[in-house]
């Protein structure tokens, strides 16, 4: 079990890992060893997550989510397979934790009287500047 929060835990069978060759520096080792980890997690069909968390997770995943609702996380930051595996799982857990937090509802506010006055004074100043541009100088 992968513990996400006190109330949410993922079954390890829900997460599929595959190993691929990492890109970037590393010399010959990069061409021979499959140290990068590609983690797949089916968000839409996961029995461990509540519906509201699934919806927020899909929004937070962005382009890492496929059309079928599978979240793909690729970890290739480290040189060893084991550390990349831990990194991928930690990133998945962190993403789900962010999705568990409900967004604070926005309460509409009205502008203060002082801010209205400042706005109108600024508009007046700007208007005077523009009026001054149009006036032709008088010849005496």
UniProtKB/TrEMBL annotation:
<dbReference type="InterPro" id="IPR000352">
    <property type="entry name" value="Pep_chain_release_fac_I"/>
</dbReference>
<feature type="region of interest" description="Disordered">
    <location>
        <begin position="99"/>
        <end position="140"/>
    </location>
</feature>
<feature type="compositionally biased region" description="Basic and acidic residues">
    <location>
        <begin position="121"/>
        <end position="131"/>
    </location>
</feature>
<dbReference type="GO" id="GO:0004045">
    <property type="term" value="F:peptidyl-tRNA hydrolase activity"/>
</dbReference>
<feature type="compositionally biased region" description="Basic residues">
    <location>
        <begin position="104"/>
        <end position="120"/>
    </location>
</feature>
<feature type="domain" description="Prokaryotic-type class I peptide chain release factors">
    <location>
        <begin position="21"/>
        <end position="37"/>
    </location>
</feature>
<dbReference type="GO" id="GO:0043022">
    <property type="term" value="F:ribosome binding"/>
</dbReference>
<dbReference type="GO" id="GO:0072344">
    <property type="term" value="P:rescue of stalled ribosome"/>
</dbReference>
<keyword id="KW-0378">Hydrolase</keyword>
<dbReference type="Pfam" id="PF00472">
    <property type="entry name" value="RF-1"/>
</dbReference>
<protein>
    <submittedName>
        <fullName>Aminoacyl-tRNA hydrolase</fullName>
        <ecNumber>3.1.1.29</ecNumber>
    </submittedName>
</protein>
<dbReference type="GO" id="GO:0003747">
    <property type="term" value="F:translation release factor activity"/>
</dbReference>
């Amino acid at each position: 079990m992968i513990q996400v929060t006190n109330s949410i835990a993922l079954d390890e069978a829900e997460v599929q890992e595959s190993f691929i060759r990492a890109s970037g520096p590393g010399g010959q080792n990069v061409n021979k060893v499959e140290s990068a980890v590609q983690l797949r997690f089916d968000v839409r069909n996961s029995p461990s997550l509540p519906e509201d968390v699934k919806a927020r997770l899909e929004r937070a995943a962005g382009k890492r989510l496929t059309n079928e609702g599978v979240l793909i996380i690729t970890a290739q930051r480290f040189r060893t397979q084991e550390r990349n595996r831990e990194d991928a799982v930690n990133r998945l857990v962190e993403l789900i934790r962010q999705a568990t937090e409900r967004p604070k509802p926005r309460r509409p506010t009205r502008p203060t009287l002082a801010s209205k006055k400042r706005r109108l004074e600024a508009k007046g100043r700007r208007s005077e500047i523009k009026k001054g541009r149009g006036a032709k100088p008088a010849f005496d």
